[in-house]
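User: Structure tokens for both sequences below?

Assistant:
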Amino acid sequence: MVLLLVSLMVLHLVTLTLLLIATLEKSWWIWTESEITDLWYNCFHDNATDVWMCATTNENDWLQSVQALMILAVVFSSISFLFFLGQLLTLSKRGIFYFTGISQAFAGLTTFAACLIFTFHRKEILNDSRDDSRGRFGYCFVIAWWCVPLLLISAALYVHLRKRE
């Protein structure tokens, strides 16, 4: 039982870390190796100074919804982890971690919604006159998609997990 709890805690922390990386790192869309776009900035690499120069993205409704959903996913997953730690200490014997599982499920669903919106509305989100077939999805977008099944799996495990003495 202890091994299961530790494994679930590690899975939760890994998923939370991946979620933070996907939300905060700058590589959701790659135009070229020297020009990338994320949820917060458009960045260009200046070869002369070897520095990334970033400007804030042009705000639109689709981008703001993706930003809000990713932040909500981080908040849900963080709250879920804190409640899990609290429930380990206070939950009665044979109690089920419902709140923790539901919070993780909400984090998975909000990440799923954010990834879907970015996938289908990237032209409006990127707000660029260039053809989006010249770019590709970055690693943060892929990490966000990886988080969806990990969050949902951990949610299912939390719901089915019972506390033992």
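Moving on to the next sequence.
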Amino acid sequence: MQSAGGSAHRAHPLFGGALSAVIPLCATDVSELREIPDNQEVFAHAHTDQSLIVELVEYQGQVADQGAARYHFEDIAGSNKALEPGAFEVTSVVALAKSELALSECSSAWVLTGTQCVSKFNEDARNTVTLHLGLFRLPQFSTDVLITFNDPQNISPDSSSASAAGTHKVPWTVQDFQHMMQTLTLNNPGLFG
């Protein structure tokens, strides 16, 4: 697949190559800038305040497949201190056809779209961010794989992110997120122990 700039997209190794996926252009590996938990791969857009996070979390067997994406979205809202009324909203949850995914090992896959009002780095200023949350359920490995696309919609002028507002030269799109989800591949099941 060709990008707008003409260079081909290639699968990027994740978790030491145990997983791989096509990462959108202009992605900076945040682990080169700061410490990232071992269960995450984090990419920031080089020119916007967008980010993509691939995260391995414990499989939530007590949550039915159709509710698992919402469960993880609310968990993220808690981590973002966005649980108060009006600070988060789920707008859609859609099942993905396994036939459209490279990760054939998943028992089901889901995409949730919602918004959260979050502050960055414990600031008082709050930004409205659209979250596109992809969920791959892997009960045989006791793991849920999350891909989160954080797409800021309204950045407070008092936020440290305000300098990135309006510089969206070539922002990532929902199609970039979908392509990343479709190309996620398991190369080494030993990743899960």
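User: Anything stand out in the second?

Assistant: The beta strands are 11-14, 19-22, 27-29, 40-45, 51-58, 88-95, 108-118, 127-138, 143-154, 185-186.
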